[in-house]
Amino acid sequence: MRILITNDDGINAPGLKVLEGIAKTLAGPDGECWTVAPAFEQSGVAHCINYTKPTLITQLAPRRYMIEGSPADCVLCALYDPMKDARPDLILSGVNRGNNASENTLYSGTIGAAIEGALQGIPSIALSQYYGPANRDLDDPFEAAVEHGADVCRRILAQKPADANGYSVFWNVNFPPVAAADVKGLRLAPQGRRPEVNFSTIPHDAPNGRRFLWITGGNQQIPPAAGSDAAVNLDGYISITPMRADLTAHDAFGDLSDLNT
């Protein structure tokens, strides 16, 4: 198997090393693992692409490249430059430091890479490690992802969901904020929404009188509805969420029929 890995935390992020181990296990001794990752952290860029200026690509080692761009840029650059003659069989994005469950999913560059992979017709999985009191002080906070990551990916790859309206399924996986031995299992879970949790800003006045705003997230310990992604994560389960890039609110069509003229 030929696997492309990327992330949004940057080429030197510890989660990318975790993902390299997962990818090597999946690829096997006769497989190939390619890394194309951002030069700098790109958290929060979602499915952003570098559309208005050229993107610098630098080869660091065989099958290892650094991009001055977003995670989606990394996928595009990989597919149409270093891997153009032999496309990957699988794209893995992560392992993100922190969860990409509930509303975080919409902002995530980790998810953005998986979206681009799916749009390009390649099976794609985003993986993120939830942080919390039970794992953040471990010798390796990514312990749950290290132990369970390859098996989760294998189980996902055994599934063959059909396309819908031309959009392929991609997968969002979140590992719970617990030690590997305390993971209770896997749960197929929909994307949730933490009640009254939103991104916001914190102001800061600099000594020169200028005003700056820090973007900040909300309380990550508030679970959404029972059975949704963040809720099962906080209960000790790995969440698996099938997703598509189709943003249409199909369920609203019936109630909006009077808009047709």
UniProtKB/TrEMBL annotation:
Gene3D superfamilies: Survival protein SurE-like phosphatase/nucleotidase
Keyword Nucleotide-binding among UniProt keywords: yes
Superkingdom, natural source: Bacteria
Gene behind the chain: surE
Organism: Sulfitobacter donghicola DSW-25 = KCTC 12864 = JCM 14565
GO cellular component: cytoplasm
Domain Survival protein SurE-like phosphatase/nucleotidase per the UniProt entry, residue ranges: 3-194
EC number, as in UniProt: 3.1.3.5
Species classification: Bacteria, Pseudomonadati, Pseudomonadota, Alphaproteobacteria, Rhodobacterales
Enzyme class: hydrolase
Known catalytic reactions: a ribonucleoside 5'-phosphate + H2O = a ribonucleoside + phosphate
Subcellular compartments: Cytoplasm
Residue positions binding a divalent metal cation: D8, D9, S43, N96
Described function: Nucleotidase that shows phosphatase activity on nucleoside 5'-monophosphates.
SUPFAM superfamilies per the UniProt record, alphabetical: SurE-like
Family: Belongs to the SurE nucleotidase family.
GO molecular function, one term: nucleotide binding
Required co-factors: a divalent metal cation
Name of the protein this chain belongs to: 5'-nucleotidase SurE
